Amino acid sequence: MTISTDDRSMPKVAGFRRDFRPTPAFWLIVPSILFLALFFVFPLLKLVAISLPGGSMEYYNQIFSTPIFLRVIGETFRVSLIVTVVTVAVAYPYAYAMAHGGRSVLLVLTVALLIPFWVSLLLRSFSWIVLLQNTGLINDLLSAMGLIDRPIRLIRTPTGVIIGMVHILLPYAVLPLYTVMKKIDLRLMEASSICGASWLKGFLRIYLPLSLPGVMASAILAFTLALGFYITPALLGSPRDMMIAQMIAGQFNEQLNFGLGAALAVVLMVLTGIAFGLFGVVRAILLNRSLRGEA
After folding, report:
1. The pTM is what?
2. Class of 55-294 per CATH?
């Protein structure tokens, strides 16, 4: 009695098992995978299921057919885009000074940048209420300098919301920019000046393109965080300037309409993903242009 192919197949099976044997590194990341699956992926899937009761799309139809929801979504993206532009514009020179200003300047600016992390987000937002109100420090200072005759309305306005959000997002925008700018050799700027280029032309043709990866990273981080802001718009803004995170919280906490709140949250996630995709396309276009310029 002979055994056909079992003996010949055994080494292959053994080899196959040896190739796919989990390594010690794999078992180290298993707890992280399980944690993310349990506390991130599962709640997201549960949220999607709640927004589709019985497989019905009624909540999504309600969102995209009701003007108030569309206005809030548009307002959220408008404010987030403005905040992103202002934040990156303020963070760029700050990061430049950190990267090329010497050790003492780096120390002072780093401490000033990290101090807000020691204060809670709620307390920082309440501080802006004190500063921006009609009898606050900003209006008092402008009045004492003779620049205004009566207080400027800053609180409960989009301007106040933008100021508060920029202040909170600034550290998150500065750090990616600093990481990229620290690697840029300033001798390239000196070489451009030796070749006859002005400082502005050298900056626009050399330094700015090299710092674009940091600009893109800061913009993506600031825009993504701005989309989900809740406390700052609720304290500094008005009901007319409501953002989508406030509406989601209202549906869950006040209206007790969990299906609609879940649908709004899913819409926010999808739109955030689309925004990520657009940022990726812009980044790819800029990268291709820079490669063509080098060629």
Report:
1. 0.82
2. mainly alpha
Alpha-carbon gap, residue 249 to 29, rounded angstroms: 34
Each domain of the chain, given as residue ranges in start order, spans: 55-294
Residue 203 vs residues 2, 96, 191: alpha-carbon distances, Å: 80, 12, 12
Q: Which residue has the tokens 């590194």?
A: 25
CA distances from 104 to 93, 98, 111, 185 (A): 17, 9, 11, 20
What's the pLDDT tens digit per position in 222-259?
998 999 888 889 888 888 888 998 899 888 888 888 99
